[in-house]
Automatic annotation (TrEMBL):
InterPro entries in the record: CitT-rel, SLC13A/DASS
A GO MF term: transmembrane transporter activity
The keyword Transmembrane helix appears for this protein: yes
Species of provenance: Erwinia amylovora NBRC 12687 = CFBP 1232
Transmembrane segments: 7-31, 51-72, 84-103, 132-150, 170-192
One Pfam family matching this protein: Na_sulph_symp
Family under the similarity heading: Belongs to the SLC13A/DASS transporter (TC 2.A.47) family. DIT1 subfamily.
Protein name: Tartrate carrier
Entry keyword Transmembrane: yes
Listed GO CC annotations: membrane
Keywords: Membrane, Transmembrane, Transmembrane helix
Membrane topology designation: Multi-pass membrane protein
Protein localization: Membrane
Length: 196
């Protein structure tokens, strides 16, 4: 019953109650009625592990945006790449965008913080095919979740469960990330250029 009420609030009541508040209300009701006790909550180590990873790294991403790092990056990047071959500039921006994901806790935070800056830089470089560049940037987001133990929502859960040891996670993330970027540039780019 509590789970159904939470789902209903998340689906139909978002105009009146934030999704996080709906979850908190349902959790408090479950504690109050005895469905859960406090030990059930505090003993769930993987959930707390996930919470700590996301709380700190989302705060870091927000902090980078608030202190003006993103605006600075956009301005400096545009000046730095101005005058280079547009294809070389696009590759540099794509690889930078991909590697900067290591600083962010989620794909959403990464996209919100960096995609506007990268698009601003690309738009200031004459000769870059913007529709293709946008497709390349957005397509690269798909693999970023596997490169770190904190890259997307499921990543900390995999890491926290012990299913993938941290050393293997980083190593395999690097390998598959490099393979993906190479395939995106060698196969995806020419295909996208044919589309636009």
């Amino acid at each position: 019953m509590f789970v159904v009420s939470a789902l209903l609030m998340w689906i139909f009541a978002t105009a009146w109650i934030e999704p996080a508040m709906a979850a908190l209300v349902v959790m408090v009701l479950m504690l109050w009625t005895g469905v859960l006790n406090w030990n059930d909550i505090t003993s769930n180590k993987p959930a707390w592990n996930t919470f700590v990873w996301f709380a700190t790294l989302v705060a870091l991403a927000d902090g980078l945006a608030r202190v003006g790092f993103i605006a600075w990056l956009g301005g400096e990047g545009g000046r730095l790449l101005h005058g280079y071959n547009p294809q070389v500039s696009a590759v540099v921006l794509l690889v930078s965008f991909f590697l900067l994901h290591y600083l962010f806790a989620s794909t959403t935070a990464h996209t919100t913080a960096l995609l506007p800056a990268m698009l601003t830089i690309a738009a200031s470089i004459p000769g870059i095919n913007m529709p293709v560049f946008c497709l390349m940037m957005c397509t690269s987001l798909g693999i970023m979740g596997i490169i770190t133990p904190y890259g997307t929502g499921p990543s900390p859960i995999y890491y926290g469960s012990g299913y993938l040891p941290v050393k293997d996670y980083w190593r395999q993330g690097t390998i598959f990330g490099a393979i993906f970027l190479c395939l995106l540039m060698l196969i995806g780019y020419p295909w996208m250029v044919m589309m636009f």
